[in-house]
Design brief:
The complex is a heterodimer of chains A (118) and B (370). With 118 residues, chain A is mainly β. In chain A, 9% of the residues lie in helices and 45% in strands. Chain A has 1 helix and 7 strands, in the order αβββββββ. Chain B has 2 domains: 130 residues, Thiolase/Chalcone synthase (Peroxisomal Thiolase, Chain A, domain 1, 3-Layer(aba) Sandwich); 208 residues, Thiolase/Chalcone synthase (Peroxisomal Thiolase, Chain A, domain 1). Helix content of chain B is 36%, strand content 19%. A 10-stranded mixed beta sheet of chain B has the order 3-2-4-7-1-8-12-11-9-10, with helices on both faces. Chain B has a two-stranded antiparallel ribbon with strand order 5-6. In chain B, a hairpin with a 2-residue loop joins strand 5 and strand 6.
């Protein structure tokens, strides 16, 4: 994925490439600004990226995709005010509403983001 | 909303859906040339050309206008992913209703190889699960969990639509399928199997819209646009998937608005083209278009007294993204004029078109009457 993007998006993607997950937050009202943008949608204040050491969220829905590498459990996770679709560790017994934590994130070889939870 | 200047569909054409690589320009011209041949309209009378496509080629609508020998006041391309076609029709409606134009040509064209139409690359939310089948399978799981909808009920949607498309000479898929075949087809993303999914293909379709005055000159069977509803809640998946939700909120809002504008109710609708990109989406649309109560969509497949997707829908006809909404509307216009050939539903007077994009982050509903 090639995104021509703002500085904050570039920074977000660079962090992702380094396997660090950061969440864009408004410096004034504290709202998450997702996808990352320079200014808050609500109050037009500056958005900053905040490092989340162990991002934790809860599972909204899940299922299994059948890829060329085999079945992969994935789901929608609500995490720090945003939602992400990511894979769940094969040992996970997924249940809607359960707590999950992000154990990896990054950019794949074609620059597509990925998020991994357990 | 008060109905302004009346707007009619006076002609419609759809070219066969295929898997062929083709020039977007030639694709776009084909149904228009057929409209010109059938209506004998003077091409100088076309005031506006709107081309619905996800192709990012430059200046496409003006190139198509030149190729067709039209010099319109206004010409532009419209991209709204799967919802492009109906958005283009509604834009044409607005141009006529506002008195800016008398006659607008709306064209939908898409080539199967246009990869930009197949996934929304902007949406970081989706991560590596960025194909439409991924969000559709999450919807399906929610619907099954919340309402007890079964995989067999979803398979029955594909069976119905493939049965309908077997009678449609321009559909991509002409072979009917059985529930067993759907259930045994390759699992893509649980519970959706290959035959629960529509196929992005090549296709083109066109409509000629006209003011009341112009419509009377061009046809003795105008089809009137009586209701329009639209809703957009964003673009990313984060806007649509919430805990415990298994519905299309934008479709519900668009449908309410269209029913209100047309002063109709769901029971007044005789024939429907709805957006069945995946079998589960048809089941959810039954509910969110208010044909059946929430949660009853699975059972409605077997119960329906309404003709839904008579041309075969997206599952049977194929899904040329930017063309789909135009082809859906062309089918309903043909149904209401009694010219739908082998797919004709007898005695229909009022029809509804439902289209949506990107996991239902935007939806359109149009109601037509003969």
């Amino acid at each position: 994925m090639k995104l021509k993007c703002s500085l904050i998006m570039e920074h977000f993607l660079k962090c992702l490439k380094d396997h660090r997950f950061v969440i864009p937050y408004c410096s004034r009202c504290g709202s998450p600004a997702w996808p990352p943008v320079e200014k808050c949608y609500n109050c037009m204040s500056k958005v900053k990226l905040k490092r989340i050491k162990v991002p934790q969220g809860h599972l909204i829905e899940h299922t299994t995709a059948y890829t060329i590498c085999g079945p992969v459990i994935f789901g929608v996770i609500e995490i720090h005010g945003i939602k992400l679709v990511g894979s769940l560790h094969p040992s996970t017994m997924p249940q809607v509403g359960m707590s999950v934590k992000m154990v990896n994130c990054g950019l794949s070889t074609d620059d597509t983001p990925f998020y991994e939870f357990e | 909303m008060e109905m302004p200047e009346e707007v009619a569909i006076v002609a419609s054409e759809t070219s066969p859906f295929t898997r062929k690589e083709s020039s977007i320009f030639e694709l776009a011209c084909n149904p228009c040339l057929e409209i010109f041949r059938k209506t004998n309209i003077d091409r100088t009378e076309v005031d506006s050309v709107i081309l619905s496509t996800c192709s990012t080629l430059q200046y496409t609508s003006s190139i198509v206008s030149e190729m067709l020998g039209i010099k319109p006041k206004n010409s532009y391309r419209l991209d709204n992913l799967c919802n492009s076609g109906t958005s283009a029709i509604i834009s044409a409606f607005c141009e006529i209703a506002a008195g800016l134009c008398d006659c607008v040509l709306v064209i939908g064209a898409e080539c199967e190889t246009n990869d930009s139409a197949k996934k929304l690359q902007w949406d970081l939310t989706r991560g590596s699960f960025n194909l439409p089948v991924h969000w559709a399978s999450l919807f399906a799981r929610s619907h099954m969990r919340k309402f007890g909808t079964t995989e067999e009920q979803m398979a029955s949607v594909s069976v119905k639509n493939r049965r309908n498309s077997s009678r449609n000479p321009i559909a991509l898929f002409r072979d009917p399928v059985t529930v067993e075949q759907v259930m045994n087809s390759r699992m893509i993303s649980d519970p959706l199997k290959k035959l629960d999914c529509s196929f992005v293909c090549t296709g083109s379709s066109a409509l000629l819209l006209a003011s009341k005055r112009k419509a009377k000159e061009l046809t003795d069977m105008p089809i009137w646009i009586r209701g329009i509803g639209q809703k957009t809640i964003g673009a990313s998946l984060s806007q649509v998937l919430s805990k415990g939700e298994a519905g299309l909120n934008t479709t519900r809002e668009a449908a309410r608005e269209a029913y209100k504008m047309s002063q109709t109710e769901p029971r007044d609708i005789d024939v429907v083209e709805l957006h069945d990109a995946f079998s589960i989406m048809e089941i959810m649309a039954y509910e969110d278009l208010f044909f059946t109560p929430k949660g009853q969509g699975g059972k409605f497949v077997a119960q329906q007294q309404l003709s839904i997707n008579p041309r075969g829908g997206l599952l049977g006809c194929g899904h040329p993204i930017g063309c789909t909404g135009i082809a859906q509307t062309a089918e309903i216009a043909a149904q209401l004029t009694g010219r739908a050939g082998e797919t004709q539903v007898n005695g229909c007077k009022t029809g509804l078109i439902h289209n949506m994009a990107a996991a239902g982050s935007s939806s359109s509903v149009i109601i037509l009457r003969s």
